Amino acid sequence: MKELTLDIENKEPCGALFDLLARVDIPGLSDQEKVTAYILAGKIAAFGHAIQLEVLHHVDDLTELAMAGHEPERALGQRKEFSRVVETLPRLFAQLRRGEIDQRRLEVVDERVGHLPDQALITQVEDSLVEVAPGLNRSQLARQTTKLVALADPDGHDQRCHKAKLERRVEFTPLPDGMAQLKAILPAVDARMAYDLLNADVTDLPKDDRTTDQKRADAFLDRFLANTKDRQVQVHVTIPIETLIGLTKEPGLLDGYGPIPAELACELAMQGPWRGILLDQYRHAIAMSTAKYRPTAPMREMVKVHDGGLCTAPAAPAPSANSTTSSPGPKAKRKPPNSRACAPGTTTANTTTTR
Hints:
The protein contains 15 helices and eleven strands. It is α+β, with helices and mostly antiparallel strands.
Protein backbone atom coordinates (compact mmCIF):
# COMPACT_ATOMS: atom_id res chain seq x y z
CA MET A 1 0.00 0.00 0.00
CA LYS A 2 2.22 2.78 -1.31
CA GLU A 3 -0.18 5.11 -3.11
CA LEU A 4 -3.42 6.93 -2.31
CA THR A 5 -5.61 5.10 -4.81
CA LEU A 6 -9.39 4.95 -4.92
CA ASP A 7 -9.52 1.28 -3.92
CA ILE A 8 -8.09 1.91 -0.44
CA GLU A 9 -10.97 4.24 0.44
CA ASN A 10 -13.03 1.14 1.28
CA LYS A 11 -10.44 -0.41 3.57
CA GLU A 12 -10.99 -0.53 7.32
CA PRO A 13 -8.69 1.57 9.54
CA CYS A 14 -5.40 -0.16 10.20
CA GLY A 15 -1.76 0.57 10.95
CA ALA A 16 -0.84 0.50 7.27
CA LEU A 17 -3.34 3.27 6.47
CA PHE A 18 -2.04 5.35 9.36
CA ASP A 19 1.56 4.90 8.22
CA LEU A 20 0.60 5.86 4.67
CA LEU A 21 -1.04 9.11 5.78
CA ALA A 22 1.79 9.91 8.18
CA ARG A 23 4.30 9.89 5.32
CA VAL A 24 2.24 11.64 2.66
CA ASP A 25 3.05 15.15 1.39
CA ILE A 26 -0.39 16.78 1.29
CA PRO A 27 0.54 19.85 -0.87
CA GLY A 28 2.05 17.55 -3.49
CA LEU A 29 -1.06 15.38 -3.90
CA SER A 30 -3.40 15.51 -6.86
CA ASP A 31 -6.98 16.63 -6.26
CA GLN A 32 -8.23 13.03 -6.26
CA GLU A 33 -5.47 11.94 -3.88
CA LYS A 34 -6.43 14.75 -1.49
CA VAL A 35 -10.01 13.45 -1.48
CA THR A 36 -8.76 9.95 -0.72
CA ALA A 37 -6.50 11.25 2.06
CA TYR A 38 -9.43 13.13 3.57
CA ILE A 39 -11.64 10.03 3.55
CA LEU A 40 -8.92 7.86 5.10
CA ALA A 41 -8.27 10.45 7.80
CA GLY A 42 -11.99 10.43 8.62
CA LYS A 43 -11.96 6.64 8.93
CA ILE A 44 -8.97 6.72 11.27
CA ALA A 45 -10.58 9.49 13.35
CA ALA A 46 -13.79 7.44 13.63
CA PHE A 47 -11.77 4.44 14.77
CA GLY A 48 -10.06 6.59 17.40
CA HIS A 49 -13.40 7.87 18.66
CA ALA A 50 -14.69 4.31 18.90
CA ILE A 51 -11.71 3.24 21.00
CA GLN A 52 -12.17 6.24 23.30
CA LEU A 53 -15.86 5.45 23.78
CA GLU A 54 -15.13 1.81 24.53
CA VAL A 55 -12.53 2.80 27.11
CA LEU A 56 -14.94 5.26 28.74
CA HIS A 57 -17.64 2.61 28.82
CA HIS A 58 -15.44 0.33 30.89
CA VAL A 59 -14.00 2.97 33.26
CA ASP A 60 -15.82 4.00 36.42
CA ASP A 61 -13.53 6.68 37.88
CA LEU A 62 -12.94 9.44 35.32
CA THR A 63 -10.60 11.56 37.45
CA GLU A 64 -7.36 10.11 36.12
CA LEU A 65 -8.58 10.17 32.53
CA ALA A 66 -9.63 13.80 32.86
CA MET A 67 -6.23 14.81 34.26
CA ALA A 68 -4.25 12.82 31.69
CA GLY A 69 -6.35 14.06 28.78
CA HIS A 70 -6.56 17.69 30.00
CA GLU A 71 -10.36 17.54 29.79
CA PRO A 72 -12.95 18.83 32.27
CA GLU A 73 -14.32 15.89 34.21
CA ARG A 74 -17.85 17.09 33.58
CA ALA A 75 -17.34 17.00 29.81
CA LEU A 76 -15.80 13.56 30.10
CA GLY A 77 -18.81 12.44 32.09
CA GLN A 78 -21.08 13.50 29.23
CA ARG A 79 -19.00 11.45 26.83
CA LYS A 80 -19.21 8.49 29.19
CA GLU A 81 -23.02 8.74 29.03
CA PHE A 82 -22.78 8.64 25.25
CA SER A 83 -20.55 5.56 25.49
CA ARG A 84 -23.69 3.54 26.24
CA VAL A 85 -23.90 3.08 22.44
CA VAL A 86 -21.33 0.31 22.84
CA GLU A 87 -24.19 -1.80 24.22
CA THR A 88 -27.38 -0.07 23.07
CA LEU A 89 -26.34 0.35 19.39
CA PRO A 90 -23.68 -2.34 18.95
CA ARG A 91 -23.90 -2.65 15.14
CA LEU A 92 -23.80 1.07 14.50
CA PHE A 93 -20.93 1.29 16.99
CA ALA A 94 -19.14 -1.39 14.95
CA GLN A 95 -19.64 0.80 11.87
CA LEU A 96 -18.02 3.68 13.74
CA ARG A 97 -15.06 1.46 14.59
CA ARG A 98 -14.73 0.47 10.93
CA GLY A 99 -14.92 4.11 9.84
CA GLU A 100 -18.18 3.62 7.92
CA ILE A 101 -19.94 6.37 9.91
CA ASP A 102 -18.52 9.17 12.02
CA GLN A 103 -19.22 10.00 15.65
CA ARG A 104 -21.58 12.88 14.85
CA ARG A 105 -23.88 10.55 12.92
CA LEU A 106 -23.87 8.05 15.76
CA GLU A 107 -24.70 10.88 18.17
CA VAL A 108 -27.86 11.90 16.29
CA VAL A 109 -29.11 8.32 16.42
CA ASP A 110 -28.35 8.01 20.13
CA GLU A 111 -30.08 11.32 20.90
CA ARG A 112 -33.29 10.05 19.31
CA VAL A 113 -33.42 6.42 20.42
CA GLY A 114 -32.61 7.51 23.97
CA HIS A 115 -36.30 8.42 24.35
CA LEU A 116 -37.48 4.86 23.66
CA PRO A 117 -38.68 2.98 26.76
CA ASP A 118 -36.82 -0.30 26.26
CA GLN A 119 -33.88 -1.89 24.45
CA ALA A 120 -36.11 -3.99 22.19
CA LEU A 121 -37.46 -0.85 20.51
CA ILE A 122 -33.95 0.61 20.20
CA THR A 123 -32.83 -2.61 18.49
CA GLN A 124 -35.85 -2.39 16.18
CA VAL A 125 -34.77 1.09 15.06
CA GLU A 126 -31.15 -0.03 14.69
CA ASP A 127 -32.29 -2.95 12.49
CA SER A 128 -33.67 -0.44 9.99
CA LEU A 129 -30.64 1.85 10.11
CA VAL A 130 -27.69 -0.53 9.80
CA GLU A 131 -27.91 -0.94 6.04
CA VAL A 132 -28.56 2.71 5.19
CA ALA A 133 -26.57 4.67 7.79
CA PRO A 134 -23.20 4.64 5.92
CA GLY A 135 -24.83 6.23 2.88
CA LEU A 136 -26.66 9.01 4.73
CA ASN A 137 -25.32 12.35 5.89
CA ARG A 138 -25.99 13.61 9.41
CA SER A 139 -29.22 15.46 8.58
CA GLN A 140 -30.64 12.59 6.54
CA LEU A 141 -29.82 10.09 9.28
CA ALA A 142 -31.43 12.34 11.89
CA ARG A 143 -34.67 12.55 9.90
CA GLN A 144 -34.73 8.82 9.23
CA THR A 145 -34.12 8.01 12.89
CA THR A 146 -36.81 10.45 14.03
CA LYS A 147 -39.28 8.74 11.72
CA LEU A 148 -38.36 5.25 12.91
CA VAL A 149 -38.56 6.24 16.59
CA ALA A 150 -42.05 7.68 16.02
CA LEU A 151 -43.15 4.48 14.28
CA ALA A 152 -41.70 2.30 17.03
CA ASP A 153 -43.33 4.27 19.86
CA PRO A 154 -46.12 6.51 18.46
CA ASP A 155 -47.77 7.25 21.80
CA GLY A 156 -44.47 8.17 23.43
CA HIS A 157 -43.56 10.33 20.45
CA ASP A 158 -46.81 12.28 20.71
CA GLN A 159 -46.26 12.81 24.44
CA ARG A 160 -42.72 14.06 23.86
CA CYS A 161 -43.92 16.46 21.16
CA HIS A 162 -46.57 17.92 23.47
CA LYS A 163 -43.98 18.26 26.22
CA ALA A 164 -41.48 19.86 23.82
CA LYS A 165 -44.03 22.49 22.82
CA LEU A 166 -44.06 23.68 26.43
CA GLU A 167 -40.38 24.57 25.97
CA ARG A 168 -41.04 27.08 23.17
CA ARG A 169 -39.19 30.31 23.81
CA VAL A 170 -37.19 33.21 22.39
CA GLU A 171 -33.60 33.72 23.55
CA PHE A 172 -31.37 36.78 23.31
CA THR A 173 -27.58 36.27 23.24
CA PRO A 174 -25.08 39.16 23.01
CA LEU A 175 -22.40 38.72 20.33
CA PRO A 176 -19.15 40.62 19.67
CA ASP A 177 -18.83 43.66 17.40
CA GLY A 178 -22.20 45.21 18.12
CA MET A 179 -24.23 42.16 17.14
CA ALA A 180 -26.65 39.87 18.98
CA GLN A 181 -28.46 36.61 18.34
CA LEU A 182 -32.23 36.29 18.64
CA LYS A 183 -33.22 32.60 18.61
CA ALA A 184 -36.76 31.20 18.65
CA ILE A 185 -37.62 27.62 19.60
CA LEU A 186 -41.04 26.97 18.04
CA PRO A 187 -43.39 24.16 16.97
CA ALA A 188 -42.15 22.80 13.65
CA VAL A 189 -45.15 23.83 11.53
CA ASP A 190 -45.13 27.42 12.78
CA ALA A 191 -41.34 27.66 12.40
CA ARG A 192 -41.51 26.31 8.85
CA MET A 193 -44.21 28.83 7.92
CA ALA A 194 -42.30 31.73 9.45
CA TYR A 195 -39.14 30.75 7.55
CA ASP A 196 -41.02 30.38 4.26
CA LEU A 197 -42.67 33.75 4.87
CA LEU A 198 -39.26 35.40 5.23
CA ASN A 199 -38.05 33.71 2.04
CA ALA A 200 -41.13 35.01 0.23
CA ASP A 201 -40.36 38.51 1.49
CA VAL A 202 -36.78 38.19 0.24
CA THR A 203 -38.00 37.67 -3.32
CA ASP A 204 -39.63 41.14 -3.23
CA LEU A 205 -36.43 42.90 -2.19
CA PRO A 206 -34.45 44.72 -4.86
CA LYS A 207 -31.30 43.21 -6.31
CA ASP A 208 -28.28 44.68 -4.56
CA ASP A 209 -25.01 43.62 -2.95
CA ARG A 210 -26.68 41.97 0.08
CA THR A 211 -26.43 38.19 0.47
CA THR A 212 -29.56 36.07 0.84
CA ASP A 213 -28.85 35.65 4.55
CA GLN A 214 -28.53 39.41 4.97
CA LYS A 215 -31.78 39.99 3.09
CA ARG A 216 -33.54 37.36 5.20
CA ALA A 217 -32.34 39.10 8.36
CA ASP A 218 -33.56 42.46 7.02
CA ALA A 219 -36.89 40.91 6.04
CA PHE A 220 -37.25 39.54 9.56
CA LEU A 221 -36.81 43.01 11.06
CA ASP A 222 -39.18 44.56 8.52
CA ARG A 223 -41.87 41.98 9.27
CA PHE A 224 -41.36 42.03 13.02
CA LEU A 225 -41.51 45.83 13.05
CA ALA A 226 -44.61 45.74 10.82
CA ASN A 227 -42.90 47.39 7.86
CA THR A 228 -44.16 44.91 5.29
CA LYS A 229 -47.31 43.71 3.50
CA ASP A 230 -49.69 40.85 4.12
CA ARG A 231 -49.00 37.65 2.24
CA GLN A 232 -49.79 33.96 2.46
CA VAL A 233 -47.49 30.96 2.48
CA GLN A 234 -48.22 27.24 2.28
CA VAL A 235 -46.82 24.20 3.99
CA HIS A 236 -47.28 20.69 2.65
CA VAL A 237 -47.87 17.69 4.91
CA THR A 238 -48.08 14.12 3.65
CA ILE A 239 -50.32 11.84 5.73
CA PRO A 240 -50.92 8.09 5.48
CA ILE A 241 -54.53 7.20 4.70
CA GLU A 242 -54.35 4.67 7.52
CA THR A 243 -53.68 7.54 9.91
CA LEU A 244 -56.58 9.61 8.59
CA ILE A 245 -59.07 6.77 9.09
CA GLY A 246 -57.73 5.99 12.54
CA LEU A 247 -56.13 2.60 11.85
CA THR A 248 -52.61 3.67 12.84
CA LYS A 249 -50.76 6.57 14.43
CA GLU A 250 -48.14 6.63 11.69
CA PRO A 251 -46.73 10.18 11.57
CA GLY A 252 -47.16 12.76 8.86
CA LEU A 253 -44.29 14.34 6.93
CA LEU A 254 -43.87 18.12 6.94
CA ASP A 255 -42.15 19.27 3.77
CA GLY A 256 -38.83 20.93 4.55
CA TYR A 257 -38.77 19.59 8.11
CA GLY A 258 -39.58 15.90 8.46
CA PRO A 259 -41.85 13.86 10.73
CA ILE A 260 -44.70 15.48 12.68
CA PRO A 261 -47.19 13.76 15.05
CA ALA A 262 -50.18 11.96 13.58
CA GLU A 263 -52.58 14.09 15.61
CA LEU A 264 -51.16 17.34 14.26
CA ALA A 265 -51.13 15.95 10.71
CA CYS A 266 -54.81 15.06 11.03
CA GLU A 267 -55.62 18.58 12.26
CA LEU A 268 -53.82 20.11 9.29
CA ALA A 269 -55.68 17.78 6.94
CA MET A 270 -58.94 19.24 8.18
CA GLN A 271 -57.87 22.82 7.42
CA GLY A 272 -57.43 22.75 3.66
CA PRO A 273 -57.91 20.95 0.34
CA TRP A 274 -56.66 17.42 -0.30
CA ARG A 275 -55.01 16.00 -3.39
CA GLY A 276 -54.56 12.31 -4.11
CA ILE A 277 -51.04 10.89 -4.60
CA LEU A 278 -50.58 7.44 -6.10
CA LEU A 279 -47.68 5.36 -4.74
CA ASP A 280 -45.87 2.38 -6.24
CA GLN A 281 -44.90 -0.73 -4.29
CA TYR A 282 -41.79 1.06 -3.03
CA ARG A 283 -43.85 3.92 -1.56
CA HIS A 284 -42.61 6.33 -4.23
CA ALA A 285 -45.05 8.90 -5.61
CA ILE A 286 -45.80 8.21 -9.27
CA ALA A 287 -48.89 10.36 -9.91
CA MET A 288 -50.88 13.22 -8.36
CA SER A 289 -54.52 14.10 -8.92
CA THR A 290 -55.41 17.45 -10.46
CA ALA A 291 -58.70 17.73 -8.56
CA LYS A 292 -58.79 19.03 -4.98
CA TYR A 293 -61.19 18.09 -2.22
CA ARG A 294 -61.86 20.22 0.86
CA PRO A 295 -63.17 18.62 4.08
CA THR A 296 -66.63 19.74 5.24
CA ALA A 297 -67.33 21.38 8.61
CA PRO A 298 -68.55 18.08 10.14
CA MET A 299 -65.35 16.39 8.99
CA ARG A 300 -63.23 19.11 10.59
CA GLU A 301 -65.19 18.64 13.79
CA MET A 302 -64.57 14.92 13.66
CA VAL A 303 -60.82 15.36 13.84
CA LYS A 304 -61.27 16.40 17.45
CA VAL A 305 -62.75 12.98 18.25
CA HIS A 306 -60.22 10.33 19.25
CA ASP A 307 -60.87 6.62 19.71
CA GLY A 308 -58.26 5.28 22.09
CA GLY A 309 -55.93 8.11 21.13
CA LEU A 310 -56.23 7.42 17.39
CA CYS A 311 -57.19 10.13 14.93
CA THR A 312 -60.62 9.21 13.55
CA ALA A 313 -60.87 11.81 10.82
CA PRO A 314 -62.55 10.35 7.71
CA ALA A 315 -60.40 9.76 4.65
CA ALA A 316 -61.33 10.84 1.15
CA PRO A 317 -59.21 8.61 -1.14
CA ALA A 318 -58.79 4.86 -1.04
CA PRO A 319 -55.81 3.31 0.82
CA SER A 320 -54.00 2.83 -2.48
CA ALA A 321 -53.65 6.59 -3.04
CA ASN A 322 -52.25 9.58 -1.19
CA SER A 323 -54.33 12.65 -0.43
CA THR A 324 -52.75 16.08 -0.58
CA THR A 325 -54.43 18.65 1.63
CA SER A 326 -53.96 22.41 1.44
CA SER A 327 -54.92 23.97 4.75
CA PRO A 328 -55.66 27.71 4.76
CA GLY A 329 -54.38 29.57 7.79
CA PRO A 330 -54.30 33.17 8.94
CA LYS A 331 -52.48 35.87 7.04
CA ALA A 332 -48.99 36.75 8.14
CA LYS A 333 -49.87 39.75 10.29
CA ARG A 334 -52.44 37.86 12.31
CA LYS A 335 -51.52 36.09 15.48
CA PRO A 336 -50.75 32.43 14.59
CA PRO A 337 -53.16 29.92 16.13
CA ASN A 338 -51.92 27.35 18.60
CA SER A 339 -50.68 24.20 16.90
CA ARG A 340 -49.01 21.07 18.04
CA ALA A 341 -45.50 20.20 16.95
CA CYS A 342 -43.59 17.51 15.09
CA ALA A 343 -43.68 13.80 13.96
CA PRO A 344 -42.50 11.59 11.10
CA GLY A 345 -44.38 9.43 8.68
CA THR A 346 -44.89 7.68 5.40
CA THR A 347 -47.06 8.92 2.60
CA THR A 348 -50.71 8.41 1.86
CA ALA A 349 -52.47 11.71 2.45
CA ASN A 350 -50.89 15.08 1.91
CA THR A 351 -52.10 18.39 3.35
CA THR A 352 -51.01 21.90 2.38
CA THR A 353 -51.49 24.55 5.05
CA THR A 354 -51.69 28.18 3.95
CA ARG A 355 -50.98 31.08 6.29
